[in-house]
Amino acid sequence: MIFRADRVILNVRRQKLMTVPEPLWRFPTREAIARLASRFDVPNEPHMQDWEWEVADPSRLDEYLKAYNGAELSDDERFTLMETIIRAFDDLPVPLDADERWQVTLSILDENIDLHAYSVWYWSDLEYELSDETWRVTPFLRKLVQKHQGRLDPQSGSQDQDGGEPDDARESPS
Fold this sequence. Notes:
globular, about 0% strand, about 55% helix, single chain, disordered N terminus, mainly alpha
C-alpha cells in the first residue's frame, strides 16, 4: 500500500468542499467491503476510514479488473471495487494514458455510468481548476461527466449527451 501524506491532506480538504449532487450519492456497504476484503485477503478493521482507498494497490490492478468483470459480484461490490480501482490508478507511477488497463476502466465507467455516477463525479473534482493539485484521474473522468452531463447533473435538465431528451423520456409509438 502506498501512503502519501500530501494526498491525505488534499483528500481531507476536498471532503469539506466537494459536492456531489445528492441524487448521485452512493457509498460502499459494509457487506461489500467484507466480501471484497475476504476475496482479496486485505484488512477490514473498524478503524479503517475510506476502506476502499486504504486497500488500493496499483500492483493488483489486473486482479481487481478480472474480479470486476467476473459474474459473481453484486452491484455494491462492483461499486466499491471500482473506487479501489480508481484510487489504485491514481497512485500508479506511470502515465495513465499509456496504460491500456486505464482505457478499459474508462470504458467500464462509461458503459456503467448509472452504477458509477457518484465515483465519476467525485473523482472529476469539478470544484477545482485542473492543476498539480487535482487527482491524476481527474482530466479523464471530467470527459465522462461532460459526455453524460444531462444524465448526471440535476441542474442541467434532462438532456442526453446529444442535447435531446433521454430515450426513456420520449413517447413510444402506440
